[in-house]
Write a sequence for this structure.
């Protein structure tokens, strides 16, 4: 799997021309809002004809059956659609949902992974399928859990791991661990550019105008 080098723009409106234009600015892809995902489903577009890079489509809810149905519907929009699902629903680990979607070949971005135990469970599921999986670790994960999770993930070529780096020390530690990506504040991103560190990518929420950066070690 190609290493994650850019993150996408958060998009709050669906328009074929805008999607194509914005995708050019984001080599890794686009991240759609909930409202945009709903519009995408209603339009049943085939995104591969509009956007060639990755499109992250978040789905939320407490009904696992409906989450699976929505994820399967979104795959009809193109092979480049990655479905973003929570690691937990109603206090329960989404093992069945994640396993079923990976077995169907639905690329997943799993959010909210808060411990090495959850990361380990995901990797034990992922090892049985070639389907791409992006694990998004939450900010509260302990450094030890981060080390173990990344070390295990390196054993599976279909898995990528992204982690927030609230401080510059966390960024350098993540670089040493060869994380696939790290999420930084704009100030941290600017500091890294000033230091001529290897860094790339930018995301912007059009709803809040708040910017986030994803950089590479």
């Amino acid at each position: 799997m190609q290493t994650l080098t850019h993150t996408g723009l958060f998009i709050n409106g669906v328009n074929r021309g805008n999607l194509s234009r914005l995708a050019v600015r984001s080599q890794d892809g686009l991240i759609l809002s909930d409202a945009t995902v709903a519009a995408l489903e209603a339009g049943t577009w085939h995104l591969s004809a509009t956007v060639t890079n990755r499109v992250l489509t978040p789905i939320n809810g407490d009904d696992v059956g409906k989450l699976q149905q929505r994820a399967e519907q979104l795959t009809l929009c193109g092979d480049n659609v990655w479905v973003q699902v929570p690691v937990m629903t109603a206090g329960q680990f989404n093992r069945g949902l994640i396993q079923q979607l990976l077995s169907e070949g639905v690329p997943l971005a799993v959010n909210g992974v808060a411990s090495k135990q959850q990361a380990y469970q995901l990797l034990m599921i992922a090892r049985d399928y070639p389907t791409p999986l992006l694990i998004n670790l939450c900010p509260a994960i302990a450094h030890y859990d981060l080390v173990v999770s990344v070390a295990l993930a390196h054993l599976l070529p279909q898995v990528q791991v992204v982690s927030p780096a609230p401080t510059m020390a966390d960024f350098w530690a993540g670089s040493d661990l060869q994380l696939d990506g790290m999420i930084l504040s704009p100030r941290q991103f600017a500091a890294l550019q000033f230091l001529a560190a290897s860094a790339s990518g930018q995301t912007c929420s059009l709803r809040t105008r708040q910017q986030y950066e994803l950089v590479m070690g």
